[in-house]
Write a structure and sequence with these properties.
Radius of gyration: 22 Å
CATH architecture of the largest domain: Alpha-Beta Barrel
Subcellular location: Mitochondrion
GO cellular component, one term: mitochondrion
CATH topology of the largest domain: TIM Barrel
Bound molecules: S-adenosylmethionine, iron/sulfur cluster
Distance between the termini: 10 Å
Helix content: 40-55%
Keywords: 4Fe-4S, Chaperone, Heme, Iron, Iron-sulfur, Metal-binding, Mitochondrion, S-adenosyl-L-methionine, Transit peptide
GO biological process, one term: porphyrin-containing compound biosynthetic process
Number of strands: 16
InterPro entries: Aldolase_TIM, Coproporphyrinogen-III_oxidase, Elp3/MiaA/NifB-like_rSAM, HemN_C, HemW-like, rSAM, rSAM_sf
CATH superfamily of the largest domain: Aldolase class I
Structural class: alpha/beta
Length: 453
């Protein structure tokens, strides 16, 4: 059975390798909260360390865009009327309700994503930050990121967003070739994008990230390397490198089916990924996750909270979250998704304070699957201490030492399991997707040894 909650978490982070995996079993009921840890009905610890329950990061989804890019199937709508004010009010209300439900005492980071959150009025950002501070504490050093589409409008609003409380900008460059930007349906050119990066760097030095995609139609490794050289002259200290994934329902998907466009093959794609990793490394960037590179320690703390299995709250249409709803007596972590369609979402928030459409209680195995899959995306992998927070009884060695598949990955040098924990090697990171089925199967066998397969 595919673990749907895990699929959903991975969707916005897993872009290299393409395939999404998971092998969950049924959910289990949890019976009580004792000294900061949760227990399943049979008494085994569910290992929610108290510190994990006190804190959360917060994701805010702005669901509108001016037009549809040819490749994108994220939850976004082209607005018919201007209802920004009401969306902003509902976001504040939903923040308040979900913070109350989670009972967290500290929000560690906030990420305004979308859609195109740079279309929102900057006061939306300050109002939401105030709503957080009214209900709980927002850490002084909290990272507050905003995704910016590098159009002239986005650029002129940077200063106001920074005054509103944004201290990190994530800029969607996607490409530095005008022809490709047009083909992808972007509403900016490369010059506008570079000027936006320049201005953002003046406002938040060292805290500007860029998103760029490879494996674009008609792309060659040589042109990609030239583009990266240009990017490396202009960028700040954080780069997110995404492999363009053809998503069902997009224009790109149709163009590929009707052979109007073709994508580079797997071999070329692997070369592009490797040349980008090499070039970024030569320019002082450390790869800290499959798709993310930082120098001068400019890692994304918000995204790290997902990969480290910490709690996060998602507000806005289609946002998802992972937290224990302690405020309503909840004792187990839930995967929550908010209603997708903005008008319906508005109605539900107005009526009930929040618009959670789907709640899935995560059982012990499902939680560990998430910790495994997300954790192995990081170059530091899963330390023994990290694993123990979620699995106090079975260590990484207890689980993986008896698997012949895992022994083979270790022998080939794709994986390492030592005093530092379990992690992928440089080559292994590019092969993570192909190793996950065996790792997940072994995890399931050890957690539920008697379950029929
Ligand atoms: C959902 S967008 C929102 C940010 C902003 N609207 C923008 O377009 O720059 C976040 C990032 O997801 C990545 N993305 C979206 N669709 C993708 C796809 N089909 N394949 C790979 N990356 C994708 C893009 O790099 C984009 O910057
Ligand atoms: C692909 S990531 C890009 C992050 C960026 N590279 C950075 O380092 O800041 C951001 C996108 O993931 C999606 N996303 C992130 N967290 C989410 C959540 N909790 N719920 C729904 N979508 C989320 C949003 O569409 C957002 O535009
Ligand atoms: S890539 Fe960004 S701007 Fe383009 S449709 Fe998706 S969310 Fe909107």
């Amino acid at each position: 059975m595919i673990n749907r909650a895990l699929q959903q978490t991975m969707r916005h982070t897993l872009r290299v390798g393409g395939r999404m995996l998971g092998a969950g079993t049924g959910q289990r009921c949890l019976s009580g909260l004792r000294s900061g840890q949760l227990f399943t009905e049979d008494g085994s610890e569910f290992a929610q360390h108290e510190s994990l329950l006190k804190e959360a990061s917060l994701y805010v989804h702005w669901p509108f865009c001016l037009k549809r890019c040819s490749y994108c199937n994220f939850n976004k709508y082209i607005p018919k009327d201007d209802n920004n004010h009401i969306v902003s009010q509902c976001l504040q209300q939903e923040v308040d309700t979900l913070l109350q439900l989670s009972k967290v005492s500290c929000v560690t980071s906030v990420f305004f994503g979308g859609g195109t959150p740079s279309l929102a009025h900057p006061s939306t950002v300050s109002d939401i930050l105030e709503a957080i501070s009214r209900r709980t504490s927002l850490a002084d050093e909290a990272e507050v990121s905003l995704e910016v589409n590098p159009t002239p409008e986005g650029r002129t609003k940077l200063k106001d967003f920074s005054h509103a409380g944004v201290n990190r900008f994530s800029i969607g460059l996607q490409s530095l070739l005008d022809e490709d930007l047009t083909r992808l349906g972007r509403d900016h050119n490369a010059h506008q994008a570079l000027r936006t990066v320049e201005d953002a760097r003046k406002l938040c030095p060292g805290k500007v990230s860029v998103d760029i995609m490879f494996r674009r139609p008609g792309q060659s490794t040589a042109s990609w390397e030239a583009e990266l050289s240009e990017l490396l002259r202009a960028c700040d200290d954080h780069v997110s490198l995404y492999q363009l994934t053809p998503e069902r329902g997009t224009l790109l998907f149709k163009q590929l089916q009707s052979a109007q466009v073709t994508l580079p093959d797997d071999h070329e794609t692997a070369d592009m990924y490797e040349s980008a990793r090499r070039m970024l490394h030569q320019h002082g960037f450390l790869q800290y996750e499959v798709s993310n590179f930082a120098r001068n320690s400019a890692v994304s703390h918000h995204n790290l909270s997902y990969w480290k299995g910490r709690q996060y709250i998602g507000v806005g249409p289609g946002a998802h979250g992972r937290f224990v709803p302690l405020g309503e007596g909840g004792t187990h972590r839930e995967a929550r998704t908010q209603t997708l369609e903005p008008d319906v979402w508005i109605r539900e928030v107005q009526q009930g304070g929040h618009a959670t459409r789907r709640r899935i209680q995560l059982g012990h195995l499902e939680l560990l699957e998430e910790v495994l899959v997300m954790g192995l995306r990081m170059t530091e992998g899963i330390t023994h201490e990290h694993w123990q927070l979620f699995s106090p009884q079975l260590t990484l060695c207890d689980i993986f030492n008896s698997s012949t598949d895992v022994q083979e990955f270790l022998r080939c040098g794709h994986l390492t399991l030592d005093d530092g924990g379990l992690r992928c090697s440089w080559n292994g990171l590019a092969l993570l997707d192909s190793m996950l089925p065996a790792l997940l199967l072994q995890l399931e066998r050890q957690i539920h040894p008697k379950a029929p397969r």
